[in-house]
Each structure stands twice: as C-alpha cells, then as structure tokens.
Amino acid sequence: MMLLCKPSLLTLPPLRTSTSTPRNPKRSLSIITTNSTSPTQRRRTMSALEARISLVFALASQASSLSQRLLVDTATEVVKYVSPKRFESRTLEEALMAVPDLETVNFKVLSRGDLYEIREVEPYFVAETTMPGRTGFDFNGASQSFNVLAGYLFGKNTTKETMEMTTPVFTRKTQSDGEKMEMTTPVITKRMEDQDKWQMSFVMPSKYGANLPLPKDSSVTIREVPRKIIAVVAFSGFVTDEEVKQRESKLREALKNDAQFQIKEGGSVEIAQYNPPFTLPFQRRNEIALEVEKKEK
Fold first, then answer.
1. Among 135, 126, 137, which residue's Cα sits nearest to residue 168?
2. How much is the pTM?
3. Conformational region of residue 266, where left means phi above 0, alpha means psi within -120 to 50, and beta covers everything else
4. pLDDT, tens digit, for every residue of 68-77?
5. Which of 38, 148, 246, 274 is in Cβ range 3.0-4.6 Å of 285 for a Cys bridge?
6. 235 sits in which H/E element
C-alpha cells in the first residue's frame, strides 16, 4: 500500500537571513566614528600635548635655577654682614664695633693717639645728594636721601646697571657761602641758602673709576674726592645731631694741641656710618672726621 505525502509536509522551513540589526545603534556609530580617526591626526594631538608638557618642565626648571641663584646671592650678601671685619681698636668700645665685609675707602694711618687718629685717604668717587631739612640726622630726611642714592646704585642710571653696595655712608655739612661741585655733566656751582645744608654720599665701587653711569635723578651728583688727610674719632650707637656737635667740639679742641697737624681752613665735619640699620647699637661703628693739614715748620 503506498503512502502518499502531501507536498506541504515536505516543504523546508524558510532560511533566516544573516543581516542583523545592532542592539545599540548609537554605540555602534560612535565606535565607527572613533575608529575613523587617522594616524596622522593622532600623532598631531600627541605632539601638541608633548609640547605643552615640555614647556611646563622647562619653565619649572628655569624657575628652580633662578631661585637657586637668588638663594646663593642672598647667602653671599648675608655672610658679609654676619661675618664682619674689625678695625684696630684703642678702647673697649671700638673692640665691640663691627664693620660689614664690603668695599670701603683705602687709607693708611699716619699717627694714632688716645683721642683720635690721623689718616691719609686715597682718592675715591661718591654719588651724593642734598638732604632735606635743617638737621642731618632726622629719620625722614636720612631715609629719603638714602633711598635716592640706593635707587641710583641699584639701577636708576643711564646704563640700568646694578652696582655693589659699599661702606661707609658719608654725611657732611656744606658751607653756607656756596660750594663748587663737579658733576659728570655739566659743571655747576651750588649755592646754599642762609642755613647750612647736609649732604649724604655713597662711596662708589672702585672698579668703575671715573667711568660711572650717569644718574637719572637730577638730585644725584657724581664727585671725585681728592686725596686728603683727616683726623678721625670712632664712636658707637645711633648718630644724632647733638652727638655730632659734642664730638666735633671735642675733636677741634684736641687738635689744638697736636704738634704735627692742624685743622684745614674751610674744612667741614664729616660723619661716616658703616652699619645697616638692624645692627645693635654697641656694634655700630660711626666716625666723625675733620680735614687737617701739616703744620708749617
């Protein structure tokens, strides 16, 4: 008996196509977009990043180097004040005085007595300015004058050059009948008013000689101090006008009995201060000086 199969029973199920729809179309799109970046663009991005990193490291290295130089310079300057030099002393007061290890004027001692010593001072250059006010040692006037001279020394000049600090700072009284002072340019005569004026001056570093830069501030003048002989008395503490008057009077009186030297006619008193403001009073070295000359035999 033959079995008959219906065609429908022999029909195979329909085949599934291989094309499938992605579950997350957006994610697939982003992957495709990311992978589409070319190697050249990637290299450019890395190069820019590397350049920024290199710049940061270079600036950090430069800042570190500058900081190290500043620390070394600061330490060098501090040592000059922490390890001061001392003059030959005649008294306990002078033995306690200390002077910063900075360049100063050159001189040789011709004679030394109980009250003063006679020095022959070699020529040197100064930058000076007239102090405001009638007194030479009031705080405001001294501070203004110091700042003006310090400005010249530390770059306020025609070459913008920073020069080294020296010692001492001189303060002197000018005569009321006028004084001729040589500037770098021009040569002028400064006539003072009825009262005497005080002038403050900084000793210039000797390496410049006469080739000092010109000051930008017209109140600062450059002057060469010629070779001279002076009588000097040292004292400690802070300088006041009354202190100067008393010590000047005593020095003039003592010089009347000097067998070799006499006060030079027209000579004015000059005060030298060797120490920065933070120095303790008993360690400060101040000197009062009068220009003298040898007596005629």
1. 126
2. 0.66
3. left
4. 554 555 444 4
5. 274
6. strand 228-235
